[in-house]
Automatic annotation (TrEMBL):
This is Large ribosomal subunit protein uL13. PROSITE patterns: RIBOSOMAL_L13. The keyword Ribosomal protein applies. Keywords: Citrullination, Ribonucleoprotein, Ribosomal protein, Translation regulation. The lineage of its organism: Eukaryota, Metazoa, Chordata, Craniata, Vertebrata. InterPro entries: Ribosomal_uL13 (IPR005822), Ribosomal_uL13_CS (IPR023563), Ribosomal_uL13_euk/arc (IPR005755), Ribosomal_uL13_sf (IPR036899). Component of the 60S ribosome. Component of the GAIT complex. Interacts with EIF4G1. NCBIfam families: L13_A_E. GO terms for cellular component: cytosolic large ribosomal subunit; GAIT complex; synapse. Associated with ribosomes but is not required for canonical ribosome function and has extra-ribosomal functions. Component of the GAIT (gamma interferon-activated inhibitor of translation) complex which mediates interferon-gamma-induced transcript-selective translation inhibition in inflammation processes. Upon interferon-gamma activation and subsequent phosphorylation dissociates from the ribosome and assembles into the GAIT complex which binds to stem loop-containing GAIT elements in the 3'-UTR of diverse inflammatory mRNAs (such as ceruplasmin) and suppresses their translation. Pfam families: Ribosomal_L13.
Length: 234
């Protein structure tokens, strides 16, 4: 299971003076988090909720990378969502459609555009925030070897009832003109096979390490006790 980003929000009290607006993340990032890149796995998250949290984070100055955008979910029936997107495709400049609006087909670009709509992207601050965001279909290197996080407040299993219908962004993108669904799926299968081999090796090394620690346990007992008394070991 992927590790998660801790989310805190406090409801405003009705009888007392209303408190400040509750936020998904703290306004100021911890010192250790500054400069670090936050890699999020988009699979299983709801589009709008994830976009809102990502938009806030990039405005706060954090670099965010979202991978597996094809696995993002949208609440509501697939056909209804498809009709909405087809209606969006019809919206264009009457005299010269090449001037915009531009309709992205890749799931990563659809997600990017959703985040852009939540940012003041026409200002210097908004442009700088948008530059801190990277989005990908699948998990390309070097992010395939990095720890990926999830956002519990945006997960479908947390936010939607099990009986509710939902759609996959990858399928929607494919049906409105995205050409790389099969290519992305093939690359993902190859990545998963490599990851399985790596995990098997890792488990073997961990087993050997535990055995080595057990073998020297009696020899280093007296040193361990001294370190514990000085608070250097727990």
């Amino acid at each position: 299971m992927l590790p998660c980003c801790v989310i805190s929000s406090a409801p405003a009290s009705r009888d007392k003076k209303p408190c400040a607006k509750a936020s998904f993340f703290p306004r100021r990032l911890p010192k250790m988090a500054e400069g670090q890149v936050l890699v999020l796995d988009g699979r299983g998250h709801l589009l709008g909720r994830l976009a809102a949290i990502v938009a806030k984070q990039v405005l706060l100055g954090r670099k965010v990378v979202v991978v597996r955008c094809e696995g993002i979910n949208i609440s509501g029936n697939f056909y209804r969502n498809k009709l909405k997107y087809l209606a969006f495709l019809r919206k264009r400049m009457n005299t010269n459609p090449s001037r915009g609006p531009y309709h992205f087909r890749a799931p990563s670009r659809i997600f990017w555009r959703t985040v852009r709509g939540m940012l003041p992207h026409k200002t210097k601050r908004g442009q700088a925030a948008l530059d801190r965001l990277k989005v990908f279909d699948g998990i390309p290197p070097p992010y395939d070897k990095k720890k990926r996080m999830v956002v519990p407040a945006a997960l479908k299993v947390v936010r939607l009832k099990p009986t509710r219908k939902f759609a996959y962004l990858g399928r929607l993108a494919h049906e409105v003109g995205w050409k790389y669904q099969a290519v992305t799926a093939t690359l993902e299968e190859k990545r998963k096979e490599k990851a399985k081999i790596h995990y098997r090796k890792k488990k073997q090394l961990m087993r050997l390490r535990k055995q080595a620690e057990k073998n020297v346990e009696k020899k280093i007992d007296r040193y361990t006790e001294v370190l514990k008394t000085h608070g250097l070991l727990v």
